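Morning!

As promised:
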Amino acid sequence: MADIGTGLVALAAAGAIGISAIAAALAEKAIGTAAVGAMAEKEELFGKGLILTVIPETLVIFGLVIAILILNLAGA
Amino acid sequence: MMFEPEDMSKISILAPKSRARAVIELLYSRKVLHVETHRKDALDIGEPLAEAERISGLLVRTRAVMSYLSLHNGFPPEIPAELKNGKSRLSLEKVEHLVSKLQGGLKQESEKLKQHEEEKKRLLAQKEALTMLSELKVEPEVARDTEALLAYIGTVSKTEGLEEELARAAKNFEFASEGNTIALFVDRRNGNVVQILNAYGFKAAGKVDDTSGSAEDALKDLEIRLGRLEKEIMASHRFFENTAALHKNVLLALEHILKTELKKQEAPLWFGATEQAFIITGFLPTAGVNEITREVNEAADNRVLVEQVKIGHKDKVPVKLRNFKGVRPFEFFLELYTLPRYKEFDPTAITFITFPLLFGFMLGDVGYGFVTLLIAFMLKRLKPQLGRFMNIMMFAAIATMIFGFLFGEVFGEEIIHLGNFIPVISREHQISEFLILTLITGIIHLNIGLLIGFWNVYRHHGLSHAIFGKASWIVLQISVALLGASMAGKLAIPAAAGWAGLLLAVAMLVKGEGVRGIIELPSIFTNIFSYSRIMALGLASISLAVVINEIAAGMFHSGIGGIIAGTIIIFIGHAINLALGLLGPFLHSLRLHYVEFYSKFYQGGGSPYKPFGTE
């Protein structure tokens, strides 16, 4: 059985990805709504809308990177 | 130069109005001149040619006929023989004759159909009412509205208490009910029974005013009338179908021809005009200027003046991208985002190399790459309109396979060990090394962007702007790297050198980009870290693949049922992972270009080149 320390490392990694995923979701919600609205007015905005929508995805990707680093460095 | 949009020239064509038709006809067929809309100044805006009004009227009527026949546009523009006047011109008289004839007949028929359908609806309601009356054993003759009485026949949602409530509201009434079906005859002077009925969810059936005899006889009579109506309605539908079949081709072609003709007739609205002459200004690729000048002169019997005009600062020169054939699919990304301005660097050729590389770096799997290649190839065959996009996917798939070999991965398994060939790096096991590799990729990619930006600014605004605006970012990166290395003790130089470099970079930035430069100072580093998504997406994809493989492998040891279930899991699992694996790397590779890479040099905002005569 793993000790408490390992559990804490796992929790830290989960927090890193989980919380950043919620943050990214909140941000993308607002941008996605606005982008769809803009597209309804002007269809050519699809490209820009798509890009704007994935911009906050950086948050969750940083979260994932940090989670992986935690597992790798602290977990080892 | 293939890194810039096509060279454009601005020309003006000045000719007497008598030659307008010939000039428009020529420009329309050549499809090279991007006509600039004339704004009213000393010259008026031109007026449409003589037949514009007539043609637009005909177009509206043709479309009306088409909508009667539920036809939609989209047919090769061949002038139907019966509408020709002489050899090639469309005869408007003949068109008018045909359209009037069709429209008249169709309008009459459609009114008839509408009447019949309304009558059918009424009779069906009456049938319902008669059926109810026969159930209630009430004679239709007493169920009519009269001067003194109103008849309500229909259904309610419940009958309990209805009669009592009616008795309270009305003095004289007759009431019959059977289940939820009711018939009520009430003195006209009792106004509020409708409210009571509504409260009980009353739904009225039809009126039976024009029937005779018993309910059964009336129903028989009704069936005969309905049958007759049905035949009439069918006949109307057949009439529409036959007319559509007979005139479909002509009408579709006609709509297309009238549409193009109207465009030509209305073209002068874009021109400048005097009483006797008109002037067209527009842009076209420089290479075509001489030819079009000669052709316009020919078409207008030399009574025309074609001149090259100098392109001014305020001119919005249309942009026509110019790239090698294989690179051209990648112009799609610029059209999706924003076209470069005229004389701006066109990053299509670089994107052609870097987009598949980043995509392959993220997906990096021989198996997934191969499947993607097959899918893209087949979709390209099946749906030619997706051709451009599928070409991009094929390049991306090939890059994915190459990276797959470097990582040694096939469907998530690290199984490529051909003789002495050792995978360059294992994404699954050398995570830290892989992360550093992706950051180095980012640094290279971004600095290519900065160098392009440097060149761009240097050409348009001079060397000092280029140094302060673009090279400053490179100095900033170097000094931060020096500072970091000396603080970590990896480099035997004093930290002060790093600090000095940093100060220099900040000063350059403030000079080059103002206060905004300081605010954006950290952006270059977040941009670099943004490339860590290459590792994150790759690792997510490979982890899923490994999980799928392990679940399936476990099942393979438990009998024939397990082997079947395992195979299904492998197929579905990898299909889902591939779908995710295509969407993610595609969007993120695109994002790394749009947000991180292009922002280092790209301005965009060019308007597309749309020559007169194209859709």
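The longest strand of chain B covers residues 8-16.

Hope this helps with the figure draft.
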